[in-house]
Write a structure and sequence with these properties.
Layout: H1 5-16, H2 27-35, H3 50-61, H4 65-74, H5 87-98, E1 103-107, E2 113-117, H6 135-153, H7 156-178, H8 189-199, H9 211-234, H10 246-273
Antiparallel strand pairs: 1-2
Helix pairs in contact: 1-3, 1-5, 6-7, 6-10, 7-8, 7-9, 7-10, 8-9, 9-10
């Protein structure tokens, strides 16, 4: 997520509370906040001005998925409990600026915020293996960014292609992490998914699963097959059979993000439990 300098300054006002549309944060609060986003600072003597400090860290996050996560945290309903400012006031304050960057903040029925781009993509992708620095992770982030960029630019076939590439990156990364003898990916996305599905114990045939979950897991395989087929016909990696429309591209990108997030969260859960 990349925003203008003017929007960065508006976010500074939200983070610090200087704009009087959000809660006030002391210097120590700001250090704690940004340390959760990769900083390694200690609050103490010589701490710079609050606005300067916040601006430097927001500019560091600008152009990364972490910025959208930060905005969702800042706009969460819990941030507005026990203060006189309304959540809607703060969201409107940012949205007046974000719209010129191609983004907006929306909320669900409980007030939980989501950052979406104004061309339609609303799914926030959770980055797998955060903190790693290998080629697969960098490639994955590149594809996620390209999906969003191409939707904003109206490059529908390019967005479809990058959605498939993102799934390929996710699946191959998980497979390599779980199977040191994994075969080389041969371009068959469905076959790759079935291997990863088995490694994560997500096969619909498992006897311990109830019927609705079996149906969901079966549907995921159909989503993979559909994305693979659509990318072959609509994407820019082959000669196109027909050109996609905006709604097609948004559907493919958001489906790919949802599936990738589910697979990554399953991988993390199993890794943390040791199963």
């Amino acid at each position: 997520m990349k925003v203008s300098d003017g929007t960065v300054e508006a976010i500074v006002q939200i983070v610090t509370g200087n704009g009087q549309v959000s809660r006030y944060r002391r210097g120590s609060d700001l250090v704690q906040l940004f340390n959760a986003y990769g900083a390694d600072d200690v609050y103490g003597e010589g701490f710079p001005g609050r606005a300067w400090y916040a601006g430097e860290h927001i500019r560091r996050l600008n152009g990364t998925p972490a910025l959208s996560r930060l905005l969702c945290e800042l706009m969460h309903p819990l941030e507005f409990m026990d203060i006189v400012v309304e959540q809607r006031t703060a969201i409107d304050f940012l949205n007046r600026r974000l719209k010129f960057d191609g983004y907006e903040i929306s909320t669900d029925g409980d007030g939980v915020p989501t950052v979406c781009n104004r061309r339609g993509s609303i799914v926030q992708f959770v980055d797998p293996l955060t903190g790693t620095d290998d080629e697969a992770q960098r490639f994955l982030e590149e594809q996620r960014s390209k999906c969003d960029h191409k939707l904003r630019e109206g490059d529908w076939d390019g967005a479809v292609t990058n959605a498939r590439s993102m799934l390929e990156a996710v699946f191959t990364d998980i497979e390599r992490a779980l199977d040191a003898t994994a075969p080389q990916y041969d371009g068959d996305l469905g076959k790759l998914y079935r291997r990863v599905q088995k490694l994560l114990a997500l096969e619909p045939s498992r006897p311990d699963l109830d019927t609705p979950m079996k149906q969901v897991l079966t549907g995921l395989a159909s989503v993979v097959a559909g994305i693979a087929g659509v990318s072959n016909k609509m994407g820019d990696r082959h000669v196109r059979t027909y050109a996609p429309k905006q709604r097609h591209a948004v559907l493919v990108v958001d489906s790919a993000k949802t599936l990738a997030s589910f697979m990554v969260s399953t991988f993390r859960e199993r890794a943390s439990s040791g199963s």
